[in-house]
Amino acid sequence: MCAGGARIFTCAWVAINVLRRVLGCSLPVQVWHIGPAELGSVEVALLRPLGVEVVDALACTKRWPARKLGGWELKAYALVHSRFEQALLLDADNVAVIDPGFLFDLPQFADTGAIAWPDVERLTPASRLWELCGIPYRSEPAWESGQLVVDKRRCWHALQIALHMNMHSEVFYPHTMGDKETFHLAWILAARKWAMPGHPARWTPTGIYQRDFEGRLVFQHRSQAKWRLTGPNQLAANFHHQDECLRFLEELRDRWRGRINVLPPPSLADEAVEAALAEHQWMKLEEPGTEDILLELLSQNRVGIGAVREDRLRWYVRDDLLTIDGALEALPVLRRSERDGLVFAAEPPARALVVRPAPQPGPDALGVTALSVLERFQAEGTISEDEAVITLATLAKVGDLRDALTRARAGFRDSEATVRVIDRALRRKGLDAPSEKVRERPGHEWID
Fold it and tell me: What average pLDDT does the segment 16-38 reach?
């Protein structure tokens, strides 16, 4: 399980407690993360009584180098370098319904060495993935990588291909919706068999439900409604072990502050500057020769839009110095301007970076129309995902919707389907999706 950052750690806490304390699962568990900024000693101590081994991928890279590591890239890296010969790769927001240990004993696993589950969508003939991988189009279910069972000895070639594709995510992710189809294509390229239950994935308001070969519900992947430590959690009458999940969240609230690594204590002046930045919310990260990046500075020192994933970045001000750090802490510290109170700039010889307040958007008919399309898609269900994507991409041809859609993305961050619509629309227009912009900036691989 990969579980870096406060929000994903919260999901992992619930999922692992269900495995151990509700289902009685005795399988050994590894939780992987990227550096101390993602999981610290407090979080490791919380997991230890559950029989969890915590693995820092950054420490592993000293022996097994990684070209790129992020939330999705880490999954293939962890699966390859885990000490397990047979492994269940389970997303942190995936709550099991029954003890999944039986999957390793299934005849389908013995026959193929791999069990995958279908996604709700599949690759179309128009996808560039077929050309990129040199594979003729195949009409078959896509893989939903919220869960994957693998015998690494028998599937080592396929896993190496999947790892290579994830280490070059800038090439593949624009066409794969993350990591999931990298595994599917890797198995095809390696000419490896796999088993897949014949029961289709079930789409629900909280995410994707998956069944075993006999039709029993096994996994509830909360891709649409990740667990929240604070604020409301989306509930569903048909969600198994829901009361236990809420109880585990309550336990975590009593034992954990909800943040990775305690920041240096702020002065009253620091708090005032931070409050002003959070109130303004939207900032521009500027660097000569590159396109500006819209950053969303949230309360509690979180970065929203502009980060590849929420909780991957944090920001804070100490002694008029703005720090925006991530897994590898590659951005220079920025000093506050004496003349412009909320403008911060790096000092030579560091890169010429400037962070300044983004202009507030004025009334814009095009942006209002785009927002209306997104609201209809999310609330009314009167238009399909593809229709919403096509409509937004068409609007983007009329005028510049980049900033409008980036800001809209913040308002819909709790709906992964709506965020996916925004990102797909921007990619269709040939623009960078907000969740990918920083990743593609030269010298910013740290953000992954």
Answer: 95
What 3-state DSSP class applies to 439?
helix
CB 388 within 8 Å of CB 374: yes
Q: What SS3 class is residue 251?
A: helix
Structural domains of the chain sorted by starting position, each given as residue range(s) with its CATH number in brackets: 6-255 (3.90.550.10), 268-357 (2.40.128), 365-447 (no CATH)
Residue 378 DSSP one-character state: I
β-pairing verdict for 344-346 and 334-336: antiparallel
C-beta separation of 65 from 44 below 8 A: no
DSSP-assigned letters across all residues of 42-72: HHHHHHGGGTEEEEEHHHHTTTS--S---TT
Continuous H helices in 350-441: 365-375, 385-398, 402-411, 416-428
pTM of the model: 0.64
Contact 316, 333 (CB under 8 A): no
Query: Which token pair is 56?
Result: 């820092």
Helix (H) or strand (E) segment spanning residue 183:
helix 180-189
> pLDDT band at 189, cuts 50/70/90?
very high
Per-residue pLDDT of 68-110, as tens digits, reads 888 889 999 999 999 999 999 999 999 999 999 999 999 999 9
Q: What torsion do the CA atoms of 108, 202, 425, 180 make, to the nearest 10 degrees?
A: -20
C-alpha span between 5 and 26 (Å, rounded): 25
Terminal C-alpha separation, the chain: 17
HEC string for 207-236: CEEEECCCCCEEEEECCCCCCCCCCCCCCC
pLDDT at 170 over 80: yes
Q: Write out the H or E segment, with its range, that includes residue 112.
A: helix 107-112
Residue 18 near residue 39 (C-beta atoms within 8 A): no
Give the tens place of pLDDT for each residue, 218-246. Answer: 999 999 999 999 889 999 999 999 999 99
Helices marked H in 204-352 — which ranges? 242-255, 268-280
pLDDT of residue 380 exceeding 70? no
Helix (H, G, I), strand (E, B) or coil at 26: coil
Q: How far is CA 361 from the centre of its chain?
A: 28
What lies within 8 Å, CB to CB, of 432 at 6+ separation is 426, 440
